[in-house]
């Protein structure tokens, strides 16, 4: 089960609950604000959130993490280059809000790491490192459900900005081509700031011309 909840305190950001329908255990991806709203959704639906997964460390993806971590006892995961974003408000951009955000007790994962539910290892996501928007940017791919949670790497007919700390446009375009557009064409891409798209649709975009083989 995938449930999208949009939070709007800072920027409209799509938060995703990815939950096993049988056990109601699951993951929450990019809880960027409004912790009370997200807790209410989980409570009303009987969700047990085992893990908080971050596609990258910008404030609009992490601002609710500390409160949810405390409320649920959930483990927090991000790509291994995310430490500077988790611990440095200048890098996660929260210093611009006048409210410094620092994450604690984060588990840092390497490329291709697999995240599973505690008692159901077949319910899994694979972390794929896609730097360029940030140096720690990643997606979480579910082969069994044919979906990838892509954060700010890819938007429908667009891609993430690259002019912030750790960003690089050439790197982002190259890694999108290598790590996302090589997934099965029917894979649904769920981003943080746009409607859903597919690998097949994004392969048609001109900025990938000449990169695809």
Automatic annotation (TrEMBL):
<dbReference type="InterPro" id="IPR051453">
    <property type="entry name" value="MBL_Glyoxalase_II"/>
</dbReference>
<dbReference type="GO" id="GO:0016787">
    <property type="term" value="F:hydrolase activity"/>
</dbReference>
<keyword id="KW-0378">Hydrolase</keyword>
<protein>
    <recommendedName>
        <fullName>Metallo-beta-lactamase domain-containing protein</fullName>
    </recommendedName>
</protein>
<keyword id="KW-0479">Metal-binding</keyword>
<dbReference type="GO" id="GO:0046872">
    <property type="term" value="F:metal ion binding"/>
</dbReference>
<feature type="domain" description="Metallo-beta-lactamase">
    <location>
        <begin position="12"/>
        <end position="193"/>
    </location>
</feature>
<dbReference type="InterPro" id="IPR001279">
    <property type="entry name" value="Metallo-B-lactamas"/>
</dbReference>
<dbReference type="InterPro" id="IPR036866">
    <property type="entry name" value="RibonucZ/Hydroxyglut_hydro"/>
</dbReference>
<keyword id="KW-0862">Zinc</keyword>
<dbReference type="Pfam" id="PF00753">
    <property type="entry name" value="Lactamase_B"/>
</dbReference>
């Amino acid at each position: 089960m995938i449930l999208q909840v949009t939070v709007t305190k800072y920027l409209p950001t799509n938060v995703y609950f990815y939950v096993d329908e049988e056990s109601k255990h699951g993951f929450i991806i990019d809880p960027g604000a409004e912790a009370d709203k997200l807790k209410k959704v989980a409570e009303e639906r009987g969700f047990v959130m085992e893990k908080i997964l971050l596609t990258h460390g910008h404030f609009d993806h992490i601002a609710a993490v500390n409160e949810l971590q405390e409320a649920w006892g959930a483990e927090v995961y991000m790509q291994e280059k995310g430490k500077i974003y988790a611990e440095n408000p200048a890098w996660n951009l929260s210093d611009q809000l006048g409210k410094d955000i620092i994450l604690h007790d984060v588990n840092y994962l390497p490329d291709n790491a697999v995240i599973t539910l505690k008692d159901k290892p077949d319910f899994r996501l694979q972390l794929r490192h896609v730097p360029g928007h940030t140096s720690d940017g990643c997606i979480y791919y579910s082969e069994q459900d044919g979906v990838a949670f892509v954060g700010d790497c890819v938007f429908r007919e667009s891609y993430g900005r690259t002019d912030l700390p750790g960003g690089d446009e050439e790197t982002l375009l190259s890694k999108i081509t290598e790590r996302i557009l090589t997934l099965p064409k029917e894979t649904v891409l769920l981003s943080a700031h746009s409607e859903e798209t597919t690998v097949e649709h994004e392969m048609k975009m001109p900025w990938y011309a000449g990169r695809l083989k």
